[in-house]
Structure formats: structure tokens, C-alpha cells
Amino acid sequence: MTLLLLCSSSISLAADRDPNKLPGAEEQKKRIDLHNNPAPTGCQVPIGKFEECPSSYFKLDYVGKDVGTFDVEGYMEEGINEAFTFIMDLLWSLYTLIVYTVIYFYKFFSVGLSKVVTFADSAKKVLDKSETYLWIPISAWLFTISFIVVVYRFFQGRKTEGYMLLLRNVAIIAFASVFLQFMPTVIKTSANMAETLSNSVLVGFMSDDKTEDTRPDNEKMRDYQRWNKLSAEEKVKEEKKEAEETSIDRVADFLWTQLYFKPYLVLEFGSVENGQKNIGPLFTYGKDNSEDRKDWFRGKGDNNTEKVTDKGKAQPGFEMVTESHMGKRFSYGTVTSLVSIVLCIMLFWYCVQSAKYYYYGVALSMFAIIPLMKAMWYNRNLSELTGWILKIGFAFFMRVIMSLLLAVCLLLFKIMSDVKIDSGGDYGWLMDFVIKNVLTVILFYSLYLVMKESKQQLGELVGSTVPVGSGFTKKAGGFIANKLAGGLGKLKKGTHQAGRLAVAATGKKAWLRENGGISNAIATAQQIKKAENDLTEMGFDPYTEQGRLDYQNHMNEQDAGHEAAATLAKLPYLQKGAKKAETRPQLQANMSSNASAIYKHMKDKGYNPHDPKSREKYLQKNPNNTNYVEEIAKWTDLPVEQRVSGVNANSLPPSRPESGTPEASVYYQMKMDQDQALYDRTADQLIQTRKREYSDQKQAHQAQSILKRTFAKKPQYQHPGQEDITQAYLKAKHARNDI
User: Cα 586 to chain center, whole Å?
Assistant: First the structure.
């Protein structure tokens, strides 16, 4: 229906635009309007500068063929062509919005952050208020408590520890005063540093392009007089500032030219060269697909004397706006738009990442009073405070790195755009455009991978909590997932829900697909390590299914199931790279499966397969099983060690076989149940030994001075792995057999 309406409206337009039906007075009035309302100067002589001409002039025109008065089929065909062009123009308008948005974002994030002086001033006010109303009274209270602890330790004879605590708190107070005073300057300086380093790469960007100064002579003279009044140092600063601002504008011009201006010239005029010659004269005839622009294509403009009315064509050289090249125009527009949008997304991502790190560092700075107060408490160390400070530096450092990477990418994109790839032909320019932009996208992605790896390494060094690709949505998703998991209540061992929460059967990723979303399926190395330590310090093995289930059940009993779910969600997937428990050997009777089934059938019916008389009684009632009973008789004559396979002297105790099977008889005859009991005792003893060692290490660590504890590695509980338990069991087994 929409297409029919467009066609009908286009038919009426096609009839109205017949040049033979335009009265001379109306045509003269149109020319007077164009003369009284001329196009902006940048539109009359466009040279590829961003914002030199409003985007409303960059519309896709269509010049239809002449249709006879009674040619209904011709009118329908023209209506369809007009409708198709209208849809293409709508898509081009959407593409215009995307390109302009990305360029504006680039200009703001490249130069705007450092110019938001009021933002730094606001941060200073917040920090000043925090110091006045929070830090000073609370720190005084904390210092008093610490001083009481110092006096108490003096009475205990622990003078060194008391001195260290006193000196530590004095140092924290001094540091806090300096930090809260100078942090606003650091915030502004980090933005300036990012801009300076970025511009150091971009200064000279397209430096060979000379732009003519078209300002009036009186403005040039005023600038010249002002310049002569500046000192030598001020002139250097002025030149540097002008060069940096010019570099940002040139980048914007370059992006607009490559991603928008040149594609438009090709879509409208067929080639860049033809477009550069004719776009100015076209824009002088209006905007928004005006009928005057179509008249210009037909040859009715002031600068065109030849009127072309050949079927389906405008003037020679303008075939791109006619029906004959509509397919080529559509393919050009589709391919260039898709490729450019991918590149725009990459540019937008780099800009947003740069801003994210900047604001993250600002937020950490404004809330730094929290770790400062925690560090003042007498039984805390400086690790949280130093970690917080390192995160602030890390965030500002990543802001600088992201700005620098973006500048390098743009510079390489400029160099690549100067390489001639066009091989000629109808689609030569399109191939040139696609190859260059695809290579640029690959370049952006490659630098992203380098940045990701570098950030991961730096993050592990400083303990950053901002993983690559994470943001508020991921953290919020993880928080909601953990709350949902905690809302399931106390779950008992062995239930399906407990297995899901413990991530024991399917692992972290599968659990998150159901509860938290796959976006949270990647934990940082620090999160994984902390989750493992949480389990091992409580005596549970994080590397086995049973250990995770036991931990979940224990936490459920403490009404802390949501905490357990959050911890377990960070552990690696058991079946991909995590340590696995050894599987127990399975006993297998050395007889056929049918004979084994007859053996169990005899036991179920009350017969003794090991007694010849009992076997004869069984055969009297079941003569068809003679062969299998004879096989059982031969099996019972074997030494007990030869009746089964799957175990040896150095293997773990086998799994307990099903009752009534031939394997069960061997299991008890060889006293393998005693081996299982020995294995359980050995494992418990080893775990208790490790716990005692860990407790002794913790006490020794606490006995050290505060200074030593601050820099010494905190003891960690090492839960015995399967290999440790196996070795201890075999040693105990051999010792028992020797006795």
C-alpha cells in the first residue's frame, strides 16, 4: 500500500515537472528565489571540510524520463523508480546521522574532556566537603582508637608494633591531606596529558594540505597586531595550541571526506572527479531533492544551455541519477554504507572506552575517602588503600593509552587512504573503498587485541576491577544473578538446584546461561584466585564437584547461599582446564556378560554360585543355562586375584560394586572395603594436617610486625589434591601390608 501511495504521488510529480508545462513567469519566480536565498558559501564551492555545508544538501536525486500524457505504463514505472529512490534517500539520511554522530563524538572525546574545567572544579568541591564533614571527624575518632591500641600494646611489651601502628596512621593522615588537596589537579592533568599525547601523533596530520585564508583583510590585520604583542613563550604556546586544534579539525575533515563526502559524489555523479566539478553548481540550485536540482541535471540551469530530453537520461555524464544506473547506485550505496558503519562502530567504541576510563578514575578519586578510613583501623593493613590508589592511576593511564591508540589508528588510516588501489572498471572505486576500509577495520581490531592483552597484564599487576569489555550492565547483571541465586533458599546436597548453584555438574558458564547471562561468563584472574582461596581457607576443594557441593551446602546452613553462589560463579568450568578428580577403577569380572547375569540371577533366587550342589539344583530348574553355569564353575576355580580385572596393587580402591554380582564377591573376599576405609582415613588425616600447618602459618604471620605483614605474602591454605591423597594412601597401604 505504501509503495502504491508513493507511486501515485510520484506520478503526479512526474506530470507536474514536465518542462513544457512550466509557465515562464513561474520559472522566472523560481530563479529569483534562488538568487535571493543563495546556498551557503561552503555549499557553492565545497572542498571536503566537515560542516562546511549543511547535510540537507547531500540528498540523492533522481531524474526521470519524459512520459507521454496517456502513457499509463510509463507513469507506473516512473512512480516505482521515484519510490525506490525515496527509500534509498531515507537510508542515506540514516547513514548521515551515524557518520555525523561518530565524528562529533570523536571531536568531543578528543578535546572536550580536558576543557570541562567546571567538572574538575566540582570534583574539588566534593573532595573538600568530604574532607571537612567526613574525613576530619572520622579520622580523629579512628586515630583515637588506634592510639588506645598503641598504648595497650606498649603495656603488652609490643613496642615495635605500637610504634609502627602510630607511624602508619600519621602517614595516612598526611597522605590524605595531600591527596584530597591535589586530586582535582590530577583529574584535569590526566585529561590534558591524553589530549597532548594524542595530538603529538596527529600534529602534522595532512600537513601538506594548505587551506587558503579567506577572511577579510581587517580580521587578518587584527590577528597580525595581536601576534606581534605576544612574547616568545606565548607565541610558542599559541602555535602549539593552534596546531593541536587544527589537527583535531583535520581528522574530522578527513573522516567526513572518506566516509561521507566521496561516497556521496560517487552515488550522485558516478565518480569523485565528476562530482568535484559539478557539486557546487548543483547545490546552488537548492536542497532536499528540489525540482530545481532535477532541472539542473536536465540542462535547464543558468550554466547549461543544452536541454536533454532523451528517454531515461539526464545530461551526458549524469547517468547515475537516471533509471539506467539505478542498480549500480543501489549496490554502491549498500556496500559503502555497511563497510563504513562497521568502521564507525570501531571509532565510536574507542572514543567511549577513552571516556569510560577517565570517568572511572574520577569516580575512584572522589570516593577515595572510603579506603582511607578503612586503612586507619588498627587491625587493617595498607593493601586496600594501595590497591585503590593503583586503580586510580591505572584508569587514568588507560585513558591516555586509548587516546594514543585511536590517534595511531587514524594516522594509519590516513596513510592507507593515500595508497592507490583503484584498478579501473565500473566497480573500481567501490573495490578501492572496500579494501581500504576493511583493512582499516582489521587494523583497529588488531590494536584492540594488543590493548586487551596489555590491559589484562596491567590489571593483574594492580588488581583492577575493570575487565575488558565490562561495564555497568555486566556488573548489574552479575549482581542480579547472585541475588536470584540467593533467593532460592537453602538447598540440600544431591538436589538438582544445588547442583546448578554449585556449578558442579555443568560448570560456571552453563549456570550463568540460566541465571546471569553469558555476558558474565568471564571472570578475571583475580576473581578466580579469590574464589579459590575462599573455598580452600574453609577446607573445601574448589577443583572437584564434591568440594563445591559441600561448600554450597555449608554456606546454605549459614544462611549465606547467595554468597556461595556468587563465589562459585567465578570458578572455572570443571570440564575445561580445571583440575579434575581421579576416577575410581571399576571391577570387571573375567566372564561373559551373560554368565555374569546368570550369576546374579542365581544369587537373587537364593542359590550359591560357588557351591557345586547349589549349581546342580539351579540347573535342574534351568537346564538351558548349562553353558553359563559351567563358565561360572570354571571362574570360581580361579585364584581370587584372577577373577577380576581393573585393579592392581598401586591403584585406588575401586568403586563399590552392585550387591549380588560376581564383582561384589571378589570385592569382599579381597577386603577392598578395608582399603576404602584406609583411603578415607588417609584423606581426612592429610586434610587435618594441612589445616594445622595453615593455622600455624597464620599465627606466625600475625606474630610479625605490621610493617612485615604489610609486605609479606599472606599464608594460603593448600587443600590436598587428588595426587597428594593418592600418594599418602599408597604409602599407608604398603606400610599396612608390610606389617
Answer: 46
The H or E element spanning position 588 is strand 588-589
The three cell numbers of residue 633 are 564353575
Rounded CA-CA distance 127/527 in Å is 30
Write down the pTM of the prediction.
0.52
User: In whole angstroms, what is the distance from residue 663 CA to residue 640 CA?
Assistant: 11
Q: Are 204 and 247 in contact (CB under 8 A)?
A: yes
CA–CA gap between residue 609 and residue 322 (Å, rounded): 97
Element (H, E) at 85: helix 72-107
- Cite the DSSP H helix spans in 108-206: 117-130, 136-156, 159-202
Report the 10 Å Cβ neighbour count for 355.
Answer: 17
Show Cβ contacts of residue 464 under 8 Å, excluding neighbours closer than 6 positions: 390, 391, 394, 395, 458
How far is the C-alpha of 715 from the C-alpha of 613, rounded, in Å? 66
Residue 532 is predicted with a pLDDT of 77
Q: How many CB atoms lie within 10 A of CB 300?
A: 18
Q: 223: which residues sit within 8 A by CB, 6+ positions away?
A: none
Please say whether the beta carbons of 635 and 589 come within 8 A: yes
Distance separating alpha carbons of residues 164 and 707, to the nearest angstrom: 7
What does the alpha-carbon distance between residue 92 and residue 102 come to, in Å, rounded to a whole number?
A: 15
pLDDT of residue 105: 84
Q: What is the mean pLDDT of the chain?
A: 70
| Rounded Cα gap, residues 159 and 167, in angstroms | 12
| CA dist., res. 211 & res. 249, Å (int) | 12
Q: Are 477 and 519 in contact (CB under 8 A)?
A: yes
> Phi and psi at residue 589, in whole multiples of 5°?
-65, 140
User: CA dist 404 to 176, 197, 319, 542, Å?
Assistant: 31, 6, 44, 41
Please answer whether residues 354 and 406 qualify as being in contact, where contact means their C-beta atoms are separated by less than 8 angstroms: yes
**Sign of the dihedral through C-alpha 314, 315, 316, 318:** negative
User: pLDDT tens for residues 668-715?
Assistant: 888 888 888 888 888 888 888 888 888 888 888 777 766 666 666 777
Of residues 59 and 1, more confidently modeled: 59
Q: Longest C-alpha distance within the chain, in Å? A: 129
**Alpha helices by DSSP H, 463-560:** 472-486, 496-502, 507-515, 525-537, 545-557
Polymer length of the chain: 739
Cα 57 → chain centroid: 38
User: With contact defined as beta carbons under 8 Å apart, do 448 and 468 qualify?
Assistant: no
CA 18 vs CA 225, 283, 291: distances in Å:
59, 22, 11
| Of the candidates 93, 5, 64, the residue with the CA atom closest to the CA atom of residue 326 | 64
Residue 23, pLDDT score: 41
**What pLDDT is recorded for position 95?**
92
Rounded CA-CA distance 201/196 in Å is 9
Cell of 364: 575512584
Long-range contacts of the stretch 279-287 (C-beta < 8 A, 24+) = 279/46, 280/43, 280/44, 280/45, 280/46, 283/39, 283/43, 283/44, 283/46, 283/53, 283/57, 284/34, 284/38, 284/39, 284/43, 284/44, 285/34, 286/34, 286/39, 287/39, 287/54, 287/56, 287/57, 287/59
**CA pair distance 663, 656, nearest whole angstrom:** 9
Confidence of residue 97 (pLDDT cuts 50, 70, 90): very high
**Amino acid at the residue 421:** I
- Asked if residue 341 lies in contact with residue 98, where contact means CB atoms within 8 angstroms, the answer is yes
* CA-based nearest residue to 202, from 259, 257, 255: 255
What does the block give as the cell for 415?
596513510
Residues 328 and 346: their CA atoms lie apart, in Å, by 28
